């Protein structure tokens, strides 16, 4: 179902950096402290206090910028690596200095891109239904955060209080080009950025705690197909910056809502509702009501009176610093997905599942795969057994009582068993904290030596005991065979499943 317009979205993503202290003072950069306990004269903006830059914030910005394929402070007319701090002036109660230290014309990272997979093939999809999309990055710059206004939400008209713990904590603002053409693409981009920045230790990207925040600049292009026009001509609607997006789902819903709203506004006034004729506006997304409310018309950069901060020296990033950051990146998610597919024969979907769970899970997979000698089997067993067990127990893979070596041993020794037998054995091991041998002894579930004559006799008696299944099978219901297989497996715990199936086929052919 295609809309009669093209949605055009650019994102502004703020991520809070995982530094120990704030950007320009020694106050702790930690979420959840009692209000106004992490403040000092510098972040309170008291007269006479002077900021000192946090080197770690620059190091994390470099890692993020390189992962986003950005140039590092490579500005015409400036020495290589030259970047500086600027004051962005505005008045708001949570900004005690009345300016925010940011980066205006010489950002530390700029002109990059990120390739993301949109709707990767899931089990129900055909291969090729997903596609990859390159999203341009205009810039990624450092800035300090503002504090938080705590509004009384009792509805009784109480006062608003200000918590300045967040004031001066380091942010990286990532601004994309308007390359995203749907809600799905925007969400895929955000998921990839979150995964990457978490893996790199740049940010924990918790939207609930505000360490990842996102605004979406949305407009639409409506094709003008009337006679006499050039093909491909379109009308562009004015931009709306949608704020207050508190989850990836809200980002997707807000983009769809705003694009549809703009199309209605355009249809009501096709000549007037155009970019340039109507000013850019800012809207707040109300997730409960599923709508965006226009709040104000947006300031232009000139309104902020940017100027270089006289209290902070410019930063010159050296080639050595860039190289050190690049070396520390490791294998990024996109490369990791491609390698899991080519090295182990994993499907795009399975590779995506493992990579999305993070580097420790991928390392676990690779250790099991190396020991078992079959990456696909290792991935299947981990997905079938380890993931459900961990999620049921609320554990991370690093805390799993079954190490990769122990699980590789498990995969090999339980190969002849059924899936249910494996589930039961692993469940017993986890519940009682015992190894596989002990679990096999306690449950009696273990692979049996193949005694073909005995097993054939068991199959014959199962066939004799299930005349209905046999009749169904003979009448053409191939699935009825499984009732016989199941009966044999129940009566012979640990019997090799493949041999049972083969013997059932042979014996049924003789009935
Ligand atoms: Zn401070």
State Rg: 30 Å
Could you tell me which ligands this complex binds, including any ions or cofactors? zinc ion
The total number of structural domains is: 4
Strand content: 15-25%
SS-derived structural category: alpha+beta
Q: Low-confidence stretches at least 5 residues in length (pLDDT < 50)?
A: none
- Helical residue percent band: 25-40%
Give the rounded overall mean pLDDT: 91
Question: What is the makeup of the main sheet?
Answer: 10 strands, mixed
* Secondary structure: number of strands: 17
**Total of DSSP H or I helical runs spanning 4+ residues:** 15
Q: How many angstroms separate the termini?
A: 54 Å
Backbone shape: elongated
Structure description:
By secondary structure, the protein is an alpha+beta fold. The chain has 4 domains: 9-215, no CATH class; 219-303, no CATH class; 330-443, no CATH class; 452-510, Orthogonal Bundle (Arc Repressor Mutant, subunit A), CATH 1.10.10. It has 15 helices and 17 strands. It has helices spanning 55-67, 183-199, 248-268, 319-327, 333-344, 348-356, 359-372, 375-393, 404-413, 419-432, 436-443, 452-465, 467-474, 481-491, 497-510; strands at residues 6-16, 71-72, 82-83, 86-89, 99-102, 109-118, 131-144, 148-151, 160-163, 170-176, 212-223, 234-236, 240-245, 281-286, 291-297, 307-308, 315-316. The strands form 4 sheets. Strands 1, 2, 6, 7, 10, 11, 12, 13, 14 and 15 form a 10-stranded mixed β-sheet that branches. It has a 3-stranded antiparallel β-sheet with strand order 5-4-16, with no helix packed on it. Strands 3-17 form a two-stranded antiparallel ribbon. Strand 13 (240-245), helix 3 and strand 14 form a beta-alpha-beta unit. Helix 5 packs across helix 6, helix 7 crosses helix 9 and helix 12 packs across helix 14. It is elongated. It starts with 5 loop residues before the first strand and ends with a helix. The model has no long low-confidence stretch (mean pLDDT 91). The structure holds zinc ion. Zinc ion binds at residues 22, 25, 27, 39-40, 42-43, 168.
